[in-house]
Every structure is written in C-alpha cells, then in structure tokens.
Known about the structure:
The complex is a heterodimer of chains A (259) and B (432).
Chain A: E1 15-24, E2 27-37, E3 42-46, H1 53-61, E4 68-73, E5 76-78, H2 83-88, E6 91-94, H3 106-110, H4 125-139, H5 155-168, E7 173-177, H6 185-200, E8 204-208, H7 212-218, E9 221-226, E10 229-235, H8 241-250, H9 254-258
Parallel strand pairs in A: 3-8, 3-9, 6-7, 7-8
Antiparallel strand pairs in A: 1-2, 1-4, 4-5, 9-10
Chain B: H1 2-6, H2 9-12, H3 14-22, H4 26-45, H5 53-78, H6 86-109, H7 116-142, H8 148-167, H9 177-180, H10 190-218, H11 226-249, H12 254-263, H13 280-298, H14 300-310, H15 312-317, H16 322-348, H17 359-369, H18 381-401, H19 405-431
Helix pairs in contact in B: 4-18, 5-11, 5-13, 5-16, 5-17, 5-18, 6-7, 6-8, 6-16, 7-8, 7-16, 10-11, 13-14, 17-18, 18-19
Amino acid sequence: MAMTTETDRSGTPLVSMKNISIAFGGVQAVDDVSIDVYPGEVVGLLGHNGAGKSTLIKILAGAYRADSGEIRINGELADIRSPADARKYNIETIYQTLALADNLDASANLFLGRELTTPFGLVDDSAMEAETRKIMKRLNPNFKKFSVPVSALSGGQRQSVAIARAVYFNAKIVIMDEPTAALGVHETEMVADLIKELKSQGLGIFLISHDTREMMALCDRVSVMKNGALVGSERVEDVTEDDILSMIILGKNPKREAA
Amino acid sequence: MSDAVSDRPNQTGKRRSLFNKLELDLRLLGMVGAFVLICLLFNILTGGQFVTPRNLFNLTIQTVSVAIMATGMVFIIVTRHIDLAVGALLATCSAVMAMTQTSWAVDLLGLAPGHPMLAWIAIVAGVIVGALIGGFQGFIVGYLSVPSFIVTLGGLLVWRNVAWYLTSGQTIGPLNETFQLFGGINGTLGATGSWIAGIVAAAAALFALFNARRAKMRHDFPVKPVWAEALVGAIFVVVILGFIAILNAYQVPERVLARQFEAQGLEVPAGYTASYGLPISVLLLIAVAVVMTVIARKTRFGRYIFATGGNPDAAELSGIDTRALTVKVFALMGVLVALAALVASSRLTFHSNDIGTLDELRVIAAAVIGGTALAGGVGTIYGAILGALIMQSLQSGMAMVGVDAPLQNIVVGTVLVLAVLIDIIYRRRVEG
C-alpha cells in the first residue's frame, strides 16, 4: 500500500519530539507524546477532533510552547519559542485555516514576514511578484490572479498560495494540517503529487488528516492520538485500515495487544 | 479590486473597462464626486460664496488638523482597534507645547520669551509626549489585552484632564511667533514659493508614476497603455497646479498689507498685491500624507499592519509580533496627534482648555467616510484625508448658509452613518 520504497530509519531522525506535554487550563491537550520523522518520510497524525494532533504540531511550528519535553532537529536540541524560530529551523507549516491574510494579494501572502526589500529597505513588490509568478508556474500553472486579494481566489488557488509559501523558502520540514480538507478532487490530487515531490527531495513531512484511506496512500508511518496521548506509531505496511480505525476509536493498538 | 471586477465583464460593459485601463479607484472617484457635489450645492445656496479662493483656502487650513490625525486613525482601524482619546490627547500635547514655550523651557534654559528656538523645543516636547502616551495606550492594548475601546475611552477622560491640570485650566497664549507659522494664515509660502512647491510636487508625482511603470516592465508584468498612463499623469498635474493656483488667487487684504508695511515703517507701494499661497500647515499635511502612504504601501511595518488587520492569526503565524505592532501603531498615532495639536493650537494662536473636543469623532468619521473598514484590513491614507475634507466642507458650508448649530451636528452624524451604509453596499456589490 505504501507508495514508495522503504525509508531509511537507521540514522538520526530529522525531527524528534520527545515526551511533549502541554495543558490549557487543566485540560491535558498533549500528554507525554513522542513522535519523529526521517528525511524523505511522510508521517501521518490521526485521531478524533480534540485528540491533540493540531496542538502537538503547533508546538513544533512555534505557535505554542510545550510545558515539558524536548524537540531535536537532526539530533540537536532545538529551542522553538515562536513561529519565527520555527522558520529558522526550516520548518514550514500549511495550516488547516490556510493562514492567509485575505486582504493581501498572493505575493504579499507568500512573502509575509519575509518580504524582499529594495536597497532603501522598502518592500520590493515587483521582485516579489516576479518570484511568485515563477513558483506558481511550477506549482499551479493555471494561476493567473497575482494582483487581487486572495479573498477573491478559489479554495484550490488559495491552497496553492499556502503551499508555495512552504516550498519557496527551502523548507526541510513541512507540516500540513488537513491540506485537502476544503479542496475538490483535482486539487486534492495536486496536493498529493506535491507531497510526493517534496518527499522525493528528502523533506520530512507531518501530515494531519481525518481521511484514513488518504493517509494509508500518502504516508510511510502513521501515529494515532486519542485524548492527548499517543496510541501508537505504525508503518502503514504493517497495519490495515481497520487497525488504524480501531486505534482511533478505541484508543488501543490491536497489533501490540495481540502480541 | 479592479481585477476582481474585470472577471465579470458582461455585467457592467464598457464604462468599467475604461476605469480598469486607467486603474482608477472607483471609491476615490465617488468621494471626489461627493466633494464636488457638496461644493456646488453650497456655492448655489450661498450665492457663489463657497467656491471662492478665500473660502477654499480657509477650508483647507481648517481640515489640516483632523486630516493629519485621520491618517493615523486609518492604521488604528485597519488593525481592528479604535482610538477615542485623540481629541483629549491633542489637548495634552497642545498643553505641553504651550507650557514648554511660555514657561518651562523659558525657565529651564533661560531663553528670552519669544525666542524662535522655543517653538522647536516645544514641538519636539509635544511629539515626544504624544508618542509616549500613544505607545503607553498601545502597550495596554497589545500586551495587557485590554480592548482599545476601553483603554482609549479611559484615555479620553484622563488626557483631557491632564491637559487641564498642566495649565491649571488657563488659556495659554499668545503662542510663539515661529510656532504660529504652522497655524495656516500666519505662515504661508507666498505666490512664488507655492508655485515652486507645486511644480516640485507635480514632478515628483510624474516621477513616481514613471518609476512604477518601469519596475513593472523590468519584470515583464502587464502595464497600462501609454495613453492611460499619460492621462493619469495629466490629471495629477492639473489637480496639483490647480490647487496651487486657487490658493495663490487668494490675495492678502489691503488692510493686512498696510499693517505689515507699517510695522517696518513703510508704505504700501501703489498697485502692490501679495498672495497667501500654500500654507505651511498644508505642506505639513502633504508631507504626512506622503510619509504615511509610503509606510502603508512600501514598508514591512505597513504590510504587517494590513496583514494583521486582514487576519491576525495568519500574521502571528507568519512570525509578525502583533503586540509590538500595536504599540508602534498607537505611538505613531500619538505623534500625529501631536502634529495636529501644533496645527490646531497655532491656528488659534493660543492653547485653550477645550481644544480638540469631539475631534475623536471627526477623525474616526473622516477615516470611515474615506473607506476604512471597521472590520479591519482595508483603508487608504488619501481616502481619510478626502474624508476629512468632505466633513469639513459640510460643516463649513452649513455654517455659511446659516444652518442652526444643533442641526449641523445632526446632519454630520447622519452623513457618517449613511457613508458607512453606502460603503457596505458597495463592498457587497464588488466582493459578493
């Protein structure tokens, strides 16, 4: 079922989050969870709404700070306190809600927080638009609306802006939080192709989704969470869709129980 | 926005495609249209008294103070905040500047009262106080998460009475003569200086247009046809030079001239006339408008203001420090309030206790009439200035016609609500 060759997991993981915990006002949103991803690997995070997947991933993206636990990038302890820090470690995130400023155009969004500037320190809109046109030609050749606010774009077009943002800045680690949730069939395929391309370039990808079948197709491994805790991490070739579903629903790992 | 419209070409036909070619903002045209309509209406009602060089000159200098603050209010509202304290803060800044030049700096530095340096020291002191108080309010909003509505509602009371406290409630004046140059009629460039300023401004506008076109062509982006570009340039030049011509047409009255010459022990030569020309306060407003427009469109700071207004979460996730941004936006508002205080108090030639009263409403109205969306993320500097001009022309016009004071305020309040209603309908049409 896995789409590509076996990932080499003998070396150091690209990212390793160890014993991460975070609580919000008494609710233990993430409880002592450890996950990792190797270069060229896609790791899927599954679980019900409120299982803690997005929270866990937002800790890696710098949006939240963990109460305890550590993050290692290439084996070295990483100190991620803000989204800007995460970007320094070449971690790029594509959020479920897209995280685009609706009132700005595609290139302003693509470069948001990292604008190209002229020698006078002013933002260089023409240069940014030129770069945006280049990357869009690669990702979504039909994309033409460069000078309108992204609120005027379709879901797929908006998603390609969000993806362009992750790809443009030489990400090494990409986090995708339900990247296909709002997309049609064709656009979903586009995202799947992109994930494969990024994977072949040796990036590490965390993918969050509710669609178990899609996850089986795209991921090398899946980690299932329930009520903030990790139920288990399995290679997709070792488990069936039913196994994963029972992990999600019952919070039990049937493979391990049987053993 | 114009491109969003162009996706539905059948709906509006040829006229809109002309606008698209010119890339002119329909909203801007609407506001200019409203302003022209108001002018014509009052000109008829006053029997030709409204559209005269003298009245347009007065209208301009009356607008400056509110217009300067309105440019800052655009940023405040774009970031989804509000500042109700600008009128009161204006009083505090005005009080600080008045006290500095008449008392504090005189005592502290031993300068003779009326020394030109006192004016500059006072201005610097006022601007610093404005920035600090603005930044302080921004800190409470951004870092302590108290809604800006509450912080500045409190500020409205606090700063009004700080001003009172500083001056013991007294009227302070007359203000320094150098200081008074920023008030309007007491500081103008004269005919020649105004023409020079106008020609420089027109050249700068053409240069900016040319530069923008060149930048687009360098990257092979589509550009407007040359005739459209030339037409826009021509409009700019005509508007700028026409404005200067109107101001220059306002002659200094004979008795004022006589007084000026008399002060130097001279007589007015026969046939001698002089124009007021461009007031320094208007020059200040133009400078503020240019700087604020550059900030809005060409700096990271401005980009982040609009991004934060459009989607605060996205801005934060993009690594933008929205808290620090809030402090900066409010501090900038404070600086602009201080400049407005300079213009307002020097126009009166004294500081009075009630200076700036209700200015918060005028400023917010100007920004909103100028197309700033209270939902955040949308607004322009030129719109806010035009909004201020429309408000002021309504008010001046009604005063000239002799409309009762209560009725004037009723009309202004109604116009504010109507303007927002029209804006909402317009947006629904364009974006819906």
